[in-house]
Amino acid sequence: MKRLLPSPLISATVLLLWLLLNNTVAPGQVLLGAVLAVAIPRLTAGLRPDQPRIRRPLTIVRLGLTVLWDIVVANLQVAIRILGPERRLSPRFFWLPLDIRDPHGIAALAGIITMTPGTLSSDLTPDRRYLLVHALDASDPQQVCEEIKRRYEAPLMEIYG
């Protein structure tokens, strides 16, 4: 089974996304999605030399809900800030010190930061100890760092160990 599906989570995600993008569960689309779900992970296995070790799968659900909530709230906050006076904006870059060491966790953290409106991850130091982040409103970069570490990095450290 491992040979047929080298990465079952990626296969399940590909199939689910295929069906969502096509907005149907017609047999032909399910079959095509299943073929893609088997083929894509097998063809890209060489590009993923390290398989992630997920230690707390339920934490993924909690983190996912947190990220979804934060995206909704951040959209509203960004809209209010952009429509308001420009002097209320305090954009800046800052270095986020990282405690997480797993490359999959760092990539997930960078992705979460980038997906959340008003923030963007833009660089990682060669030693993987600092992530360069841009925030639309960072009047207190230390507070933004603490919130990112508490809301995203801590659960990712639980997930990836």
From TrEMBL:
Quick one: a GO cellular component term? plasma membrane
Record-linked InterPro entries: Cation_antiport_E
Main localization of the protein described in the UniProt heading? membrane
**GO MF term (any one):** monoatomic cation transmembrane transporter activity
Where found, per UniProt? Cell membrane
**NCBIfam families found in the cross-reference section:** PRK08965.1-2 (NF006518), PRK08965.1-4 (NF006520)
Q: What is this protein called?
A: Multicomponent K+:H+ antiporter subunit E
According to its UniProt entry, this protein's organism is Quisquiliibacterium transsilvanicum
